[in-house]
Amino acid sequence: MNNKILKSERTYKLLKKVFIIGLCVIALIINGQANVFAADDPLTVINNLSNFIFGLIRAVGMIILGFGVVQVGMSLKSHDPSQRANGFMTLAGGVVITFAKEILNLITGG
Asked: Nearest-5° angle of CA 80, CA 76, CA 88?
């Protein structure tokens, strides 16, 4: 009985080592493949990064906006005023986050 336990512990430790080594090898392979070619104009690179980040922010805003609509609908069904207030706040926050780039352009005049 004791021999089986020792054998399973050794097997567990061996599998754990193999798994960790495998993860390290995969990480090295992935990191070694990263060739990045920048554009000639650094301002273009910054603008592309800005557009990408604002695209991610817009996606999060759309998710929050959808959640706010669901929350308002559920509050209207249950007649709960506090849930309705939270729903409208979530809805307003989703709209602000979704249109953050346009709001910033209006503020800065750009």
From this structure: 80
User: Which one, of 91, 104, 93, 106, lies nearest residue 54 by Cα?
Assistant: 104
- pTM more than 0.85: no
Q: Does 106 map to a domain?
A: yes
Assigned domain for 36 exists: no
Distance from the first to the final alpha carbon of the chain: 76
Split into its structural domains, the chain has a count of 1
pLDDT for 4-30, tens place per residue? 666 777 887 888 888 888 887 887 777
Q: Domain span at residue 46?
A: 41-110
Based on the number of CB atoms within 10 Å of its own CB, is 99 exposed (0-12), middle (13-18) or buried (19 or more)?
Answer: middle
> Is 59 a member of any domain?
yes
- What is d(CA 19, CA 16) in angstroms, rounded to the nearest whole number? 5
* Residues composing the chain: 110
